[in-house]
Design goal:
Elements (H helix, E strand, L loop, with lengths): L1 H18 L5 E7 L5 H20 L3 E5 L11 H14 L4 E7 L2 E3 L4 E3 L6 E2 H8 L5 E6 L6 H6 L4 E5 L12 H8 L15 H18 L9 E3 L7 E2 L3 E2 L2 E2 L30 H19 L6 H21 L15 E2 L4
Parallel strand pairs: 1-2, 1-3, 2-13, 3-7, 7-8
Antiparallel strand pairs: 4-5, 5-6, 8-9, 9-10, 11-12
């Protein structure tokens, strides 16, 4: 009878495991070839901050490039490819890919420098094509600008440290972004969260301030693209979280989708269900589109349409459960993809 009891225990463990909900967010941090020890120390520190941010949100965290590369059976390029394949088969709701390291550009191809064989923007775009999760791709490397046009698409946010492949000097943007991604002080719209848009705006501004303080010509100008046109927008086109310029073709301006990516949830933020979040995101898109066409409308018509969006938005937050607060998330066990 003891073997029967053991079977029941095992069955219960399997069922309990199956009932556990997988994290809605997966963060993959890829650390490239540092080249010099001083850069290696920086990259490890930046990666650690992303790991800490993942822990605060109980996200699944995967690291590539931080293990012993010389003794690994597979190259970092192979590990990255296999990781993307697994995420394609079992996609999270939200995926973050963060590249920390150096990049190169030969006039035609932009590359991220992995240990061993590098990966080009075009190769990464091909590997990510079947991924269905809404995705943020953050390339903190030098010469990363061309990644925006290659990777841009629907349901994606692309952030690059530079605006072109010819900004090839060491990029410091990744340092500042790793600090701001979990910093509550970056909450510009006072909704209780610091979104990817807000963290990017703060990091890009701090990068500029660094060069000004050092009396140096800035050799990196970060871009953000989330409307799929691949052109990207610099931070100084924004006032607060709203862009100050309009697209000639009427395209929804960059920034709206990125403002809906939140890695570290605020402690005192209003709780929204998945259904309310979806409705909130749609209303915010409508608001951005309305602002884009403000010049084409009379003041009366604009205010009427504005009210039609803002009233439901306010009612949405009023209907949310503001009394129940989420329990403190337990830090997940970080995965080193080189050991899997």
């Amino acid at each position: 009878m003891m073997w029967l009891a053991a079977c029941f225990v095992l069955l219960a463990q399997v069922e309990a495991s199956a009932d556990q909900t997988a994290p809605a967010t997966t963060v993959v941090v890829i650390v490239g070839e540092p080249g010099e020890a001083k850069y290696g120390e920086m990259f490890v520190q930046w990666a650690a901050r992303w790991k800490e941010a993942s822990a605060k949100s109980a996200s699944r965290h995967i690291e590539i490039g931080l293990g012993d590369g010389e003794s690994a059976e597979k190259s970092d390029r192979e590990i990255l490819s296999e990781t993307i394949t697994k995420l394609t088969a079992a996609p999270p709701e939200t995926l973050w890919l963060v590249f920390i390291g150096h990049g190169t550009f030969d006039g035609k191809k932009a590359k991220f420098n992995l240990r061993g064989a590098d990966i080009t923007a075009a190769e990464l775009a091909e590997q990510l094509q079947p991924v269905s999760a809404r995705t943020a791709i953050v390339n903190c490397a030098s010469a990363s600008g061309p990644f925006a046009s290659k990777l841009a698409g629907a349901n994606r946010v692309i952030v690059t440290a530079t605006q072109s492949g010819y900004e090839y000097n060491f990029a410091r943007f990744g340092d500042f972004l790793s600090r701001t991604i979990g910093d509550a002080s970056g909450d510009l719209d006072k909704d209780g969260h610091t979104s990817l848009l807000e963290a990017w705006l703060a990091a890009a501004k701090q990068t500029q301030q660094y060069y000004e303080a050092e009396s140096q010509l800035a050799t990196e100008h970060s871009l953000l693209d989330d409307n799929g046109d691949g052109k990207g927008t610099p931070f100084d086109w924004f006032r607060g979280i709203h862009i100050t310029k309009t697209a000639k073709d009427g395209t929804l301006p960059d920034g709206t989708f990125a403002n809906q990516f939140i890695l570290v949830p605020g402690k005192d933020a209003t709780l929204l269900s998945d259904e309310l979040l979806s409705r909130r995101d749609e209303l915010e898109r409508q608001l951005a589109q309305l602002r884009q066409h403000k010049g084409d409308l009379s003041e009366e018509d604009y205010l009427k349409r504005l009210e039609e969006i803002l009233v439901p938005l306010a009612q949405l937050y009023e209907s949310a459960d503001t009394t129940e607060k989420p329990s403190e998330p337990q830090p997940p066990v970080a995965e080193n993809a080189e050991k899997s």
